[in-house]
Amino acid sequence: MHDHDHPHHDHSHDDGAALPEIALRVKALESILVEKGYIDPAAIDVIVETYETKVGPRNGARVVAKAWCDPAYLARLRQDATAAIAELGFTGRQGEHMRIVENTQQRHNLVVCTLCSCYPWSVLGLPPVWYKAAPYRAKAVIDPRGVLADFGVALPKETEIRVWDSTAELRYLVLPLRPAGTEGWSEDRLADLVTRDSMIGTGLALQPGAAA
Amino acid sequence: MFREPWEAQAFAMAVALHERGAFTWTEWAAALAVEIKAAQAEGDPDTGETYYRHWLAALEKLVAAKALASDAELQRRRDQWDRAARTTPHGQPIELGNDPSHPGR
C-alpha cells in the first residue's frame, strides 16, 4: 500500500474532495473491522477519549506522592508495583507488569524503549514524541549522561545512571527523589512537584516553589 | 498527543483489537518494532513524527496475518472510500454509499 499523502484538495471531477491517503487507509481498516464485528465504534471513541482526557502523568504523580508519604505503600510498590498502582485505580490495558525503579543519591534511573515505544500508559498516558524518536532510543543506552544534559539535568559525577529498557511485558516507573524542604507536605501538594519527565528519568522532581 | 484524528483512530483500533484477544501485546510490540526498523532502513528519520504511520502499517499487517482482513480487502475498501470522498458534496458526511460504484446506487 502506498504511504504518501495527497493533502491537496482535488476538485477535478465533481463536488467532493480527495481524502489524504493515510485517512483512507484508516477508514478502510476501521469500516471493515466494524462490519465484521471485530471492533465496536463506540469502544473506539471511549478509548480515544480516555487517552486524550483521563490518563496522563497526573496518575503517576499520585503514585509517587503516595510512595513518598506512606512507607507501607512504598513497600507494596516494591513488592508488586502492578497491584499497588491498581489500588489507586490505575490499571494497564495491555496486561503489562509494572516495576518501580527508585532514585537514590547514589543512583539515577532512566527509562527507554529501544525497540519501539513501550511506555507505562496507565500512569503516564501516551509517550511524548521524543520518547518515540530514534535519537533518544539510541542515545539513552549509549550516553545516558549526555541525554540528561540534553534535558538540562546535571548529576554529580559519582551518581551511577542505570538505564532500563522497557518491553511489551514490563514497564518501568521512576520514583524520583523527594525534594528537600517538603517535610509535612500533603500528597496533593507533593504530586504537583512530580513531572512526567521525572518519572521517565529525564528530569527531577520540581523544587518547592517551582510547582506550576 | 494525537496530532490528527486518524492517529487517534489507529491507536484505538490496536488497543480495542488487543482487548478482544485478537493478538497479544507482545505480538503487537514485535509487529510495531519491525515496521519502525524497516522504515529506518528506508531512510525514515524516525523522529517520532512518523510514529503513527508505522503504527498503522503494523496494524494492517497484523490484521492480515491474523486473517481479520486481507490486504486485498483493505485495498478495495480504500478505493471505495476514495471514490465516495470525491463524490460527496462539501459539508456532507462521507459515506460508502456515496461511492458511484456502490451496489446500493
Q: What gross morphology of chain B would you assign?
A: globular
Mean pLDDT of chain A: 89
In the CATH scheme, what's the topology name of the largest domain in chain A?
Answer: Nitrile Hydratase, Chain A
Strand residues, percent of chain B: under 5%
**Number of DSSP E strands of chain A:** 4
Distance between the termini of chain B: 40 Å
The CATH homologous superfamily of the largest domain in chain A is named: Nitrile hydratase alpha /Thiocyanate hydrolase gamma
Number of helices of chain B: 4
Sheet having the most strands of chain A = 2 strands, parallel
Total discrete domains of chain B:
1
Number of beta-strand segments of chain B: 0
Q: What percent of residues of chain B adopt helix (DSSP H or I)?
A: 55-70%
How would you write the strand order of the largest sheet of chain A? Answer: 1-4
Q: Uncertain regions of chain A: pLDDT < 50 for 5+ in a row?
A: 1-13
The succession of helices and strands of chain A, N to C, reads HHHHHEEHHHHEEHH
Give the biggest sheet of chain B.
none
Distance between the termini of chain A: 46 Å
CATH architecture of the largest domain in chain A: Alpha-Beta Complex
Helical amount of chain A: 40-55%
Outline of this structure?
With 212 residues, chain A is α/β, with parallel strands linked by helices. In chain A, 43% of the residues lie in helices and 11% in strands. Helix content of chain B is 61%, strand content 0%.
Structural description of this entry:
Chain A: One of its GO terms (molecular function) is nitrile hydratase activity. Chain A: Keywords: Lyase, Metal-binding. The complex is a heterodimer of chains A (212) and B (105). Chain A has helices at residues 21-35, 41-54, 57-69, 71-79, 81-87, 121-124, 129-132, 134-142, 144-150, 187-191, 196-200, and strands at residues 97-102, 107-112, 160-165, 170-175. Chain A has 212 residues and is α/β, with parallel strands linked by helices. Chain A folds into 2 domains: 21-52; 56-200, Nitrile hydratase alpha /Thiocyanate hydrolase gamma (Nitrile Hydratase, Chain A, Alpha-Beta Complex). Chain B is an all-alpha fold and 105 residues long. Chain B has one domain (5-98). In chain B, 61% of the residues lie in helices and 0% in strands. Chain B starts with a helix and ends in an 18-residue tail after the last helix. Chains A and B meet through helix 1, helix 2 and helix 7 of A and helix 1, helix 2, helix 3 and helix 4 of B.
